[in-house]
Amino acid sequence: MLDGMTIPNCAKGTARPTVNLNVRAEPGPQYAKLGMIPQGETVTVWAVVNGWAIVQTASGLTGWASRAYLAPVGALVA
Fold it and tell me: Does any domain span residue 4?
């Protein structure tokens, strides 16, 4: 779960940040920063909601990142 949201057990796709990208606790720049994804690292995208993606890194960091800075690897299913 991510702040009361159940993450589906099937990925929506993968993506790579086009910049070093902050991962946040909630969908918005005003929310707490949980960590950072280095530019070019592949992440799993679980869902996209109002311009924000729920992402998970290979190390297990899970949170919200701005969809504007994620380049799909293949097709992202919204």
Answer: no
pLDDT per residue, tens digit, the chain (78 aa), is 455 555 555 558 999 999 999 999 999 999 999 999 999 999 999 988 889 999 999 999 999 999 999 999 876 555
pTM comes to: 0.82
Between CA 41 and CA 28 the distance in angstroms is: 21
Q: Which domain holds residue 63?
A: 13-73
From residue 41, alpha-carbon distances to 31, 36, 47, 55, 67 in Å are: 22, 10, 18, 12, 15
Q: Find the farthest-apart pair of alpha carbons in the chain and give their distance in angstroms, rounded.
A: 30
Residue 6 in any domain: the answer is: no
In this structure, what CATH number is given to the domain that contains residue 55? 2.30.30.40
